[in-house]
Structures are given as structure tokens and as C-alpha cells.
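hey can u run this one w/ pyridoxal-5'-phosphate bound, need the C-alpha cells asap thx
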Amino acid sequence: MQFVNLAAQQDRISEKIEAGIKTVLSHGKYIMGPEVGELEGRLAEYAGVEYAVGCASGTDALLLSLMANDIGSGDAVFTTPFTFIATAEVISLLGATPVFVDIDPVTFNLDPAKLKLAIKAVCENEPQIYPLPNGYETLVPRCVIAVDLFGLPANYAAIGKIATDYEMIVIQDGAQSFGGQFAGKMSCSQGDIACTSFFPAKPLGCYGDGGMCFTNDAGIKDILTSLRVHGKGGHKYDNVRIGINGRLDTLQAAVLLAKFEIFPEEVELRQKVAERYSELLPKLNLNLVSPSVSDGYKSAWAQYSILAENSDHRTKLQSGLKESNIPTAVYYPRPLHLQSAFSSLGYKQQAFPVSEDCSTRIFSLPMHPYLSSKDQASIVEVISNFID
Ligand SMILES: *Cc1c(COP(=O)(O)O)cnc(C)c1O
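ok here u go:
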């Protein structure tokens, strides 16, 4: 059994993918070919935003979004420690400071009540209010990067209100949530800029690296478009700002155009797979917590992640599943504030207890649109053997 089955998808659309690649090979516009603009148009329409700007990865999408807002030294960027390193890495790369905010234990996403406390702590220079990183004395709150973990959008209503109160911008890290929804609107239409990733294992993945920024702001779109090509002005050799080489490859855009044709259907198939897990697992009466999706939210189900009782219980379940050739994964085994890369921030163990607790108990089951009910039944069967 596979954790993510990309071959099943390829079998369905291999002719379209190959035709798309062949077209690129024949026109030869490997850099910023027509497929890039076509994909940007389609995905902007799907997400329900005015503009989409393709780029080289989800990480670059986040980096470009911060750069487009002149985030740098002295700026506090609030985000969750329970995410992939890329979310916070880009903040430090620009010389800004990640200020971590613990998660909600049910959604695994940024907890708006704690966000408010963390902002207040920065404004009042008071780490007693909320744990703050080294150098907090000189920080100015500028931005929130909310992450839609496992495909479930964060609470953008609450986060947006707090950001408005403090005149901060909101960046949506929708790397895992493309295809999901919040309050009846598609994922990647939330915040001031939204970012997604086309890493192969994401809900909409290409065959390499790729990413995209989404915004309704024409000025920001123009800056993103300039930044991704070395800060170009009127033409390539007119450089008006410091940028990066952050373009989306034409070949990857061609692959994505073929995959996008069946993407909405795949999002629905993921709903069915998740529903089956959520129906079968609670019947076991094991001490496992299945994900729950509140009214007004739709998850893109990048992952189906459950909480074991504790770390030993997780180890037992994971090794039992492995013996039956059922792969599992842990996202994420160590929260970012405890990673060596961020040791200079000086955060202590227990600073973010919910993230730390989840990191010892969480694991993800196989999840992809083509997971059969038969395979799911056997996964649940193996798990049921752990009832003593
Ligand atoms: C995958 C991911 C990224 C980075 O995307 P890449 O395309 O791999 O650079 C950023 N944030 C989150 C939450 C992710 O899951």
C-alpha cells in the first residue's frame, strides 16, 4: 500500500500530461512560456481571486509574499511552530523574527486567542503575557502567516479581525489546503496574499517543485511579478528592486494544467476517503482522536492525521501498521521552536504545550484520492488489533 499514490493519478491522465510536455518541447519556451500564464488564469479563477503569480516553490511563494510587503529586520511575523520549516524559515531569511503562537488542539491551526496574547506581549514588551523570542524588545508586529495544516483552513475570520486591529497583514500558507474552503470561499482567497505549493505530494502537485501566490491587490501582483524575475522593471535588464530567480517552469505548468482538469474531482474523492476513515475509526472505541471539520470549513485533506494516546501508543500503532505494509508518517515530530535552526530565538521547552503534545502523539494514515474502501477497511482492521 502507498501513502500517496501518484501512479493511479498518472494512469488516468498520462496522455494529457505527455501531450502537454510535448507541446512545450516543440515551442521551446521553457522559461515563462504560455502555459504559465494559462495556469495562473485558471487557478486564480478556481480560487476566486483576481491574480495568481506562479513561482518556483511553495517556499518561494512565502518568501516573495513577505518581500512584497517589505518585511525585514525589526519586524515580528507571527506564525505557528506546528508546521513545515519553510513557513518560518523565510521569515528568518529576510532578517525578520518569527514569533511563535501555539495551536488549537482540535484544528492544529493557529489559535486566535493566543495570537492576540502574543501581539499584546510584543506591543507591551512583556514576555509574562506570552512567550517571546530573544530580541523582542525592539520588534514591531507586522504580519501573521497562518497555516492551513493538513488541508484545513485556519480561522481567517478571527485572525483577520486581530490583524486589522493591529494594522498587520495576513499571509495564508495554503501549501496543504488548495481545494479546501473557508466560509464558503475557496482556499487561497484568504488573507492579503495566499501561497500554495505544487510539491508532488501536495493536493495539487507537479513533477518537481512549483508554487503560486494569490492576491486581489493589483499593486502587490505587480511587485510579485517583478520580484520573481530578479526585481525586473520594464524589461529583464532593468532591475528596480532586489528579487530572486523564483519562476515557475513552463514544463511544470504544463503538467499542472493536465492535472488540474481532474483536480476538483480529486478533492471530492479525498472527502469520501476522509469520511470513510472518520466513520470507521471512532467505532473502534480506541483512544484515538480523528480530525473534525467544523461547519463552514472544507479540508483539502492533504493528510488524514490522528492523535494517539501518547508517544508509546503511537509507536505501537505505527509499527503494527508497518508490519502489515501500511505506511504512516509523522507531521511534525518536533515543533519549530525546538529545532536547532531556531535556537537563537531562545524559546524553551513547554513554551507551546499544545504543539509539543501533538508532536508526540500525531501520525498520518495513507491518504490520496484513489485509496480504496477495501484498503481503508484493512488499515482500520490492523488498528483494531490494538484494542486490549
Ligand atoms: C510544503 C509546504 C511548504 C513549502 O512548499 P515547497 O513547495 O516544498 O517549498 C510550506 N508550508 C507548508 C505548510 C508546507 O506543507
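Residues 57-59, 83-84, 86-87, 147, 173, 175-176, 197, 199, 209, 211 surround pyridoxal-5'-phosphate (CB under 6 Å). anyway lmk if its weird
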